[in-house]
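Hi D.,

Good news: the full-assembly prediction came through. Inputs first.
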Amino acid sequence: MATAVIMPKQGQSVESCIITKWHKKQGDKIKKGDILFSYETDKASFDEEAKTEGTLLAVFFEEGDDVECLLNVCVIGDEGEDYTEFMPQNKDMAAQPQEQKEQAPSEAPQPVLEQAPAQKDGFIKISPRARALADKSGADIRFAVPSGANERVMERDVQNVIEQGKLVTSAAAEQYAQMQPISGTGIGGRVVTADLTETVAEKLPIAEFKEVKLSNIRRIIAKTMHDSLANSAQLTLNTSFDASGILSLRKKLKENAEQLGLPNITINDFITFAVSRVLVRYKDLNAHFQDDTIKQFTNANIGIACDTERGLMVPTLFGANLLSLAEIASKSKALTTACKEGTINPDLLSGATFTITNLGTLGVESFTPVINPPQTGILGVCGITERTKNGVSYPAMGLSITFDHRAIDGAPCARFMQELTQALENFSLALMA
Amino acid sequence: MPKSQFINPDEVRKSSFIKFDDIAVNQYNKSVAQEKANFSNDDFVRIYRDMAIIREFEGMLLDIKTVGEYNGISYNNPGPAHLSLGQEASAVGQAYLLDQNDNIFGSHRSHGEILAKGLSCIYKMDNDELYSLMKNYFGGAILKVVEGGQKDVKEIAIDFLIYGALAEIFARETGFNKGLGGSMHAFFTDFGIYPNNAIVGGSATIAMGGALYKKANKKEGIVISNVGDASMGCGPVWEALNMAAMDQFTLLWEEGYKGGLPIIFNFFNNFYGMGGQTFGETMAYNILARVGAGVHPNQLHAERVDGNNPLAVIDAMKRKIDIIKNNNGPVLLDTIVYRMTGHSPSDSGSYRTKDELDAWERHDVLKEYSGKLIESKITKQSEIEEIGEYAKKLITKALKLSIDDNVSPRMNLVKQPDAIESIMYSEENIEKMHQDEPKTLIPLDENPRVAQIKKKVRYAFDQNGNPVSKNRVFQLRDGLFEAIIHKFYTDPSLIAYGEDNRDWGGAFAVYRGLTESLPYHRFFNAPISEAAIVGSAVGYAMSGGRALIELMYCDFIGRAGDEVFNQLSKWQSMSAGVLKMPVVLRVSVGSKYGAQHSQDWTSMIAHIPGLKCVFPVTPYDAKGLMNTALAGSDPVVFFESQRIYDIGEQFHKEGVPEEYYEIPLGEPDVKKEGGDITILTIGATLYRAMEAADVLQSQYGISAEVIDARSIVPFNYDAVIKSVKKTGKIVLASDACERNSFIKNIAANITELVFDYLDAPPVCVGARNWITPAYELESEFFPQADWIIDAISDKIMPLKGHVSKSNFTETEQLRRNKKGV
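Then the structure:
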């Protein structure tokens, strides 16, 4: 019977491996121990030996392909045998079998959750060694017939499963993943069948849902944001300033825009302008934090967070501190438009030394922005609320700054905010400076 | 049982009476005036000074313990303090004639003895020698603390002595033993002050071994065992008295070595053992000195001395030292004293009356002696008062220094986590402890056993693979013999004794041939006194020699429990590495002889920190490991199995080398390679594991890797880990009873170390938790080859077609534990 050869999982953190060389080609006779292909991770190279005999029926990936671990790479079996059930799910990544491109890949078998578990009580007794082999090989231990004492699954039983080709397909692997937490309830945290079946089939109420694959940009955002929170010491300070000055200035400028030949200047532009002037004096906020060094930038390259249909994008306004208010306004406009249209030059999506994000237009009064690593700070611009000072009401605009405490302490950051709000409250002076 | 001694029925059956001589009780009756011929005025006053220093030292500790303050200095000392207030005269009187070549061993109540002996040595020693001794001790660490401001080396040395002892009591790293001995164990061998002992009577056997060392190696000086009256209730003390006075010393030992051991068994008799009154309640002797008459016809020259009078004690010591110098030791002294304070500060004194205390207060040793000196115009009251002030200043200074954490820090186990670990063993390889020529009777190649072994075949199988007959094969006992006789011809300090060692050649013929080569003073029969055998070896080794001793059966370890568990194991580390303990204790594990002669107690030995433990079971390993053990500086308990003394070398294909080689302790050995399952054995179980491996291969196609532990302390896991990583399965087997067997310890470690490689739980196969039954039933008690196969089939992987005879199921395991069997 045909047996699939999977891309082994070389360690917990390895997600995929690159095939560097095929030593056998489709149709070759294979003996046990023959090297089928070589592959590598970012850290090491390996050879995959054949564990079964037969003919190499199909090769799903080519040299240079980055193959997700546990995916079927090739199939060994008797000549003429049907191997379609082993074709990997991920069609984007998989090369079609060389000679049978016309053949439509059939559905991979769904994991058979109703498969009788190895033990009657739904508890798979499996030795740590057998468990390790199953993890590495992707063997589906629910098919293992225990040959150890006290009905324990041993290494040799997992080897049988591998030889029978009962490997966890990528779809099954996903389904396994959805069964999280696979924190086993068995002895020593062993995952037992009950953990799988009960979570999915019995415990959860049946809810309708649609599975939507993450877009690439969503994946990148997810990873960047999560890494940011996981790897730095972020905290947020909130403050506000009297926005009456910039509001009236904006009104005046808007009224005279055509006359002065000025573009439309938004509140954001005012803030970007003020930030760019103040920021260059706070070296640790206009910086990149890298392990044991802080890279302090001379000019303020300000990232402008921009909400697009595809998700958050942050184009960079390089050298903002050297630009006039009008230049800031027109360049910002150009950048955000390019992002929304998807025409942005990728080089402009990196290189920022500080980021400004604005949720104020959506009525948010205060929030916790997440730093774009390796930057050390991000300013959140909030909405305007009515406040009173000495019995006189005024429009107060909120500002929330998140900073990386590894790079800068609270007091200097608060001083930055103080200086920034003073600049914004006395914007005309700032313009002249 | 020398043939030279004829046990004549006509003689021993004759009718007669045993006659006793009178035993002197407090017969000293000289006045100070009469003693003026023997002592200068300075001598008389110095005796008082030493007593006053001890009084102040102990008084200070009493204040610290009871009110937390002395002379305005507050301190809390949580450790023990068994004080000798009231006993000062006896300590000073005893030490007066002794110098640094005389070794004293003490008890839990020995502060006074330490100070008196130290002061006596300081007085007698040359200044240069004294200074270099202090300078070299722990790199001058103690000297650095005390030096400065004194007018001469002797003054420095007195500060050194008092501070070193006090810092030790307060567990400071600048104490004589880095604070690891403490109050009950403080000692300083450079002044001939050997370990004091917290086990009552513990010093008697050790001191006797120290005396054996002096005698067998012709070293100067005498040895004193200072123990209390209550220790006369301890078996090992009687064993020591008897062994020190054995007939063979006078009847069989060679010229130049004749005569009993140079030791005084001094009993500081304060009439109480804690609160149990020895005179009138817990003992039968009435007057302790009587005991001498029960040990030897010379009555051990026993007498009772009034320890309240330093001059009476000096007089007795002078006479007893003469006896010893004339090779008529040992001596028993019953030195009466009275302890003015409790056994310890927690003693409420519920066992004695105020009247009794008041009566003894009137006999206070300092007042009585100073009164006599003033009366005899040797000194004046003012001088006595000055001495009191001097002592107070001395003690105050030492106290201030010893409680100052900056100059007297405690061991920092956080900064130096290996500080104690590094002194648990001395780990040296010392070919010979002395440099002189070893005393032997004949050249090695003329030894009949050596000649006989020359003809033997050194591998168990001939060229055709057939086994060589028992008589022609080089046996395990020959391997041991070769290593031992080699060391006897190399290290002149090596001494061997045990039960039936000489003439018989050891119960299992390991020593056959040694009698022909070795004089009595290197090789002799010990009495059936296991405590004294082990205890004396401890004293012999800490004095500077190497001892090879034997307990005929492992089961007899119980008879030497304290000596093995508390003495042999601990003195290297309790001395902070000052002492070495090159002792090899051979222990033979029996079979066929039932419940008290068949036990494997390796696990018990392994439990005690400070002991090394080996159990070789092939001639090659036995010789190599014995060579290593005998070249080391640490105590090694060397297990042997009576099942296999005659076995030939089956594993080392080149046979057992004729030349000298060492096998490092702690390295398990793969006896058979295999890929499917690991079997690890301790001891002679190896051969049953080999049988099991054959069956596994031939009947089930399973290839077993068999590993022989060889040593259990230390134990290098590398080979076992490598094997289990390969096989994923391990069975551990030993003849020790399964509960708490060392194989359980290895199994636990393996589980932790290679958990992810295990394909089944490690399975232990030990003897049943029963008494050992008769030989005919042993196959139901000790692990057999088929038990190992049963265990594999029941607990690791069912073997096709195998029907287990023994029960290794989980249900049975639970039942046995529930029943405690």
